[in-house]
Amino acid sequence: MRILRTKKWGVLIAFVVGGAIGASAAIAAVTTTVAADTNTVRERIAQISTDGGFDSGWHIHPGPVIVQVQQGYLKIKQNTCNPTVVRPGETYIETPGQPVDATANHAAKWTITELLPNSVPGDPDRVTTTSPC
To answer: By the 8 A CB rule, do 93 and 1 touch?
Structure first.
C-alpha cells in the first residue's frame, strides 16, 4: 500500500479515460463508467464520481487496485482502522486479499484500475467482508 505523488499516472489515466468517456456527465449521486474491460489481461478501468455520502463498504479485491483521485478526496482504510486521505493528483494502491473501505463525504472523482488475476469476464471484482476494526 503506497501513495505515489506523481502527475504522470494521473495524466495518463485521465487521457485514456477522458478519450473513452468524452463529454458525458452524470447526475446521479454515484456513477461508474467502465472505460476498458479486456478479456485477455483482465484489467478493468473505471471512473467513479459522487456528490458525497459515498461508502464502498468493507470488501476484498482478488488483485491490486490502483486508485487515482482527480477531484475531492477519498479516505481509504486498509491494514489500519485509521484512514489514509488521498487527494487530487495522488495515487493509492490497494493490497489484494486485504479488507478495504473507501469513503467520500463530499463531491469527488477518481479512477480505479483493477488487475484481476485468473479471472474471466463475469467473475466478481470484489467480495463483501466485515470490518476488521
So the answer is: yes
Query: Using one digit for the tens of pLDDT, what is the confidence trace for 120-130?
Result: 777 888 999 99
Give residue 45's identity as a one-letter amino acid code: I
Residue 16: which domain range? 3-117
Ordered alpha helix ranges (H), the chain? 7-21
Beta strands at 74-78 and 3-5: parallel, antiparallel or unpaired: unpaired
Domain count, the chain: 1
Residue 129, domain member (yes or no): no
Q: What is the dihedral of CA 15, 37, 51, 57, to 10 degrees?
A: -130
Q: Is residue 131 part of a domain?
A: no
Whether 63 is covered by a domain: the verdict is yes
**pLDDT (tens digit per residue) in 84-109:** 999 999 999 999 999 999 999 999 99
Q: Are strands 59-60 and 127-128 parallel, antiparallel or unpaired?
A: antiparallel
Does the global pTM surpass 0.85?
no
Half-sphere exposure of residue 29: CA atoms within 13 angstroms, side-chain side: 7
The CATH number assigned to the domain holding 102 equals 2.60.120.10
Find, among 67, 91, 94, the residue nearest to 80 by Cα: 94
